[in-house]
Structures are given as structure tokens and as C-alpha cells.
Known about the structure:
The chain is an alpha/beta fold. The protein contains 12 helices and 11 strands. It has 2 domains: 7-91, Arc Repressor Mutant, subunit A; 97-304, D-Maltodextrin-Binding Protein, domain 2 (3-Layer(aba) Sandwich), CATH 3.40.190.290. It has helices at 7-19, 22-29, 33-47, 64-91, 104-109, 111-121, 134-143, 192-195, 208-220, 233-241, 251-254, 289-304; strands spanning 52-53, 61-62, 97-102, 126-131, 148-153, 166-181, 199-202, 225-229, 247-250, 262-264, 274-283. The termini are far apart.
Amino acid sequence: MKPQPDLKLLATFLAVARHGSMAEAAAELGYVPSAVSQHIAALERETGVELIVRRPGSRLVFTAAGRSLARAARTLFDATARFQDTAHGIANREIAELRVGTYPSAMTYLLPQVLSALRIRRPGPRARLVVVETDEGVPRVTSGDIDLLVAYRYLPEDPPAPSEALAITVLGREPLLLVAGADPGRGRPVELAECLEREWVSGHAHSPDRRQLHRWAGELGIALQVTLETEDLHSMLAMIRAGLAVGLIPATLLGQGHGSGVEQVVLPPGVAPLHREILAVSRSGPHPPVVDDLVTLLAEAVEDAQRPEGFDAG
């Protein structure tokens, strides 16, 4: 037997199985009845077994082998149809699943509303989320493991950088707010000069936010004591809220009511506040329309989050 029977013969066999009649199968397929009979005989020769018992004046009877082959053939043709539908969708840049990588705080404060809006706009594709930091996520975009990465960039020279392999869209600039623990009895805002002798909290020595903080301090001619190190923004905020340190916190994190217990430090006149860029990173070249929709919605969400509710910007 061949590894796979002739699909034309299988199609004829299935038509006979559907109708229980070679004449009706021939009418459906546009053949003469003798051609259908020849196809069945040829299929029996290929398989080496009798598939249909044919007796003049009697109805067709499928053997056990015939019934088994009919079930297998239906499965094969169903799978072929699904494959063709999928291939057609891919050719039209339609996909069933989009794998999105995102840094943790974006997962909490940006993605929920964005994915809800995306589901209404384009209900077909399913988004599978992967929590990953930018430095780990970019190689996964290049390799094809992630379709779209929501990333951040603290300094212009930091990755990701545009290349032939990557397409980078700047979604917006997220303010980084210098905050200290709130003191209701103070009666006046905290100023930067008061923070210079305090402990500071930031990322580890070579992390992007730490390098940005030290560059900013150097430009201002001030020295900072970073004694508390963590990559987790919620931990940073907890330390600040407890009065243990001051630090730079992304504005998005201070929205949604999470800015309670902290207050913004007033910067001297002429000192520009810091920010980080929020990026969408994908592979270069054609991509499904859902990616464009997601990038548009992300840009709108980043813009909406630039002045978070529930926090007094001072």
C-alpha cells in the first residue's frame, strides 16, 4: 500500500459513503457511475482489502476495513480543510494567537484596558501574555518567540535600537516622578535639597534606571546615596511610602490609587523632570493587522496614563 492513498480516490470513496450509492456519488461528483466503480476498485487495490461489498440488486455494504477507512478519510479531509482555512488566513495576515511580551508594571497598569479594547475591535485573535523585562524580551522578538514586545528605554543609547530585524515604535514618554513618603504634618512640599542627605532607592548598579539616576545627578552636580537596591517597582514604592528612602517612580505606577502615602518632590526651577520611553518592538516586515491595532491602543493608553488619577502631582 502507498504511504497515502490517492486523494481523488479517497474523495470518491467518501462520496459513496455519504450517499450509500455509487450512482448518487457519481451525480454529486459529476462522474458516470462506472468511473466511480473504477475509483473504488483502484482504492481497494491500493489498500489491498475489500472496502465495499457489491451485489447486484442489493444495497452497498461497507466492510469493517471500509468503515475504518471512511472515518480516517473524513478526519484527513477535515484536517486538510482546516489547514487550507488557516493557510488562507495567514496569506491574508490573519492569526489565531498573538504572543505579547511586557514588563511587569505594564502588565498591571496598561495591558488590561488595552486588551479589553482590542477584544472589541478585533475579537478573533487571542493574546498570550509573557512577562519579561526589555533586555530579555528583545532577543525573543528577534527569534520569533514573541510577536510584540512592550518595552521601556531610560537612556537614548539603551537597547532596543532600530535594525533591519526590528521595528520600533515609540508609544510615548512616561514621566518619572521623584517622590518621598508623605508627611501630612509638614505643611509644605518636599524640595530636592532636603533629599540629598536621605537614602535613595533604585535599581541595581548597572540597571537602566540606576544609570539614568546617576547621570541626572551628575548633570545637577549633586551626589546621591543609593543604599536600597531592587528591580521591583512595587518594593521601591513600599520603601518610599514607609519613609525609608526617596526615589524615581514611573507615573503610571502612581495612578490607580497607588500614589497614596507618597508626595512628589519639588525640583528646582529649570530642572527638567525625567522620563522613560515606552516602546513597541516587533520584527520588521509585514505583520498581521492586529499588531497595528494593538500598537495604536497602547499609544493611547500611554498618553492617558501620563497624568495618573489618584496622585497629587504637586
